[in-house]
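Collaboration report, partner site 2.

Our partner group contributed sequences for two proteins of shared interest, and the home lab folded both. The records are reproduced in the order in which they were received, starting with the first partner submission.
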Amino acid sequence: MPALLAKVPADLRVIVVDNGSCDDTADVARALGATVVLESVAGYGAAVHAGVRAATAELIAVMDADGSMDPADLLPMLDDVEEGRARMAVGRRRSSAAGVQPWHARLGNAAVLAWLRWRTGLPVHDIAPMRVCRRRDLLGLDLQDRRFGYPVELLVKAQAAGWLFREHDITYRPRAAGTKSKVSGTVRGTLRTARDFARVLP
């Protein structure tokens, strides 16, 4: 967490959502100047929604805090939305080395995005692991999923609403030491996530 927060551009306000963490992440984040929001309802979507509600800025950015992505990559995405080149700018992960993304996670991601491009014409190739849009626009989509289906529901509803997307390549690095993804860390986790995705697919 300290290493990640040190990379956040100075003019960005950081909100960290504590979604039942068992370590000292919340205390460390507060000590480093981040706003910490507690969300008792478990789930990725619940955590993101809590952060969005707590935000006050017009533009909001979402990314994981596991060290796999660089916050500096948000800057051109913020520019796209602020200057009207996109309603939502999204990141497309490009692994920094072989094996950074497990095969089952890559396969599941590719299958979901291929389906969405075929069914809806969605012009993106990743499930928006890093994204920027206007807060009021996001709340206006009235997203309901509070689990791992949240980013897929977001893409589906944004596409249906006619949003203009712009996709940026972002470098995807190994997670911080000692952390493990609930999604891609195991085949079981990936299958559970796939089930959540299936619930919101058109």
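Second partner submission, folded after the first:
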Amino acid sequence: MKNELFDLTGQVAIVTGTSRGLGQHFARALAKAGAELVLTSRNRDHVLPFETEIKALGRRAISLELDVRSQESIERMVEAAAEEFGRLDVLVNNAGCNVRKPALEVTWDDWNLILDTNLRGSFFVAQAVARHMIPRRYGRIINIGSVTSVAGYAGLAPYGASRGGIRQLTMSLADDWGKDGITVNCLAPGWFRTEQNKVLYENPEWVEYLCDRIPLKRPGQPNDLDGAIVFLASESSRYVTGQTLLVDGGISTGATRALQSKPAS
């Protein structure tokens, strides 16, 4: 028996950046909840094998090219998706990038690449999709942020700025489009192993340090995000908008291991 609050049957979801990583996990979770999928990548060929996987779940799916740094590419993708399915219900703004460097080594081009991709791209994808949602007075927009949306980390200055901007953008768009039946929320993962940061997880000392700061004492696993993405995409979150949902094992609490005091002799 399906729980209608979390049932996405018949809904059409666009997930950007699905050639690898968390984007594929988000799309897979939505498909398992019943959604039909629009999958995107800068190179369509890179996402075709994943399209086959989604279709094997019994869902309709198409793969479209998308470069979020190009407004023309954004508009072309959204129009093709709307023409194929006739409706757009959910957007997961996942496409992003990072350049990990000390602040003194960040170049002008590094900054522009990260902000143009993560922040400007997310806004203009949301804008293009919202134009199709507003006439139907329904939509779920989920911007993917990060624990860096609310906390600072060395070596991540432009990335953190872009993710902090995503949090603020989410609140602004929620206020803009709430009257049109669209909710806009930010899903902010904590420390998950991805292609972008896998080198960090090859250092056992760093992993131990990280886990010491996470109350649940482990990095995130991709399926830890399944419930959150389905919640924000579904009817169950109908009165939730403008919010940042941290799925981070509690690291944003600032917790560290307490020193154990020795019993008095």
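Feedback sent to the partner group on the second submission included the following. The mean pLDDT is 93. The beta strands are 12-15, 36-41, 61-65, 90-93, 139-144, 182-189, 244-247.
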